[in-house]
Structures are given as structure tokens and as C-alpha cells.
Write a structure and sequence with these properties.
mainly alpha; 2 strands; globular
Length: 112
């Protein structure tokens, strides 16, 4: 879904076309948890990924700026809500990974 959000927000026509073709073949999930981060933190994380050889694109290729990033995040949320309901949303720079996992596990266990 995140790659779809990139495609829609950057108007990449071939990726949009592919996403429309496979849209009805998406798996159905019991829970969707939306993880996001503020733009400045995303830039910092991206730079460390590129330096470590984990990501080959430049930040300019990925996001044309803060506005582009926010459009992509809104598009992603919209796509997730369209295909399923977002159970919870976390800003990963404001909450620890362990806390996110604990919250997710508690929600899942309450459903059983």
C-alpha cells in the first residue's frame, strides 16, 4: 500500500495502472496498524538507510518536500481505510517500539 501511495501522490501512471489491476486481489487483514513518522525524522532515517546501503534512492526521488510527504501519508491512510479499517495509528518518533508492540498485542488478544 505504501508503494501505491507513492505512485498516487507522485502520479506514476504505470504503478497506478498496476495497482488498479491487482486492487481486488488484496488479502484481507484482521488488523491494520498505521505507522508514521514526522517528515524531519523520516529524512534522518532515510539518510542512514542510504549510508548503510539499505536504500538506493535519493530523498528527492522519494519526496519532493514536506508537502509531498504529507500527501503520500494521507493517501496511504485513505487506501488503508478503503480496503480495511485502521485499528490504531502510531507516530514512531513519539513512542517506543516496545510500547507499540504491547499495544498491538493487547488489542489482538482482546479480540480473541
Amino acid at each position: 500500500m505504501r508503494s501505491w501511495a507513492y505512485a498516487f501522490s507522485n502520479q506514476n501512471r504505470i504503478r497506478i495502472f498496476i495497482s488498479k489491476i491487482i486492487e481486488n486481489r488484496l488479502p484481507v487483514y484482521d488488523f491494520i496498524f498505521f505507522l508514521t513518522v514526522e517528515y524531519k525524522e523520516r529524512i534522518r532515517r532515510h539518510a542512514s538507510q542510504v549510508a548503510a546501503g539499505e536504500n538506493s534512492d535519493t530523498i528527492e526521488q522519494r519526496f519532493a518536500g514536506e508537502h509531498s510527504f504529507e500527501v503520500m501519508e494521507r493517501t496511504l491512510k485513505s487506501l488503508l481505510d478503503k480496503h480495511s479499517k485502521i485499528e490504531d495509528e502510531f507516530t514512531t518518533s513519539k513512542i517506543t517500539t516496545n510500547k507499540i508492540v504491547d499495544i498491538m498485542l493487547n488489542k489482538i488478544l482482546k479480540q480473541q
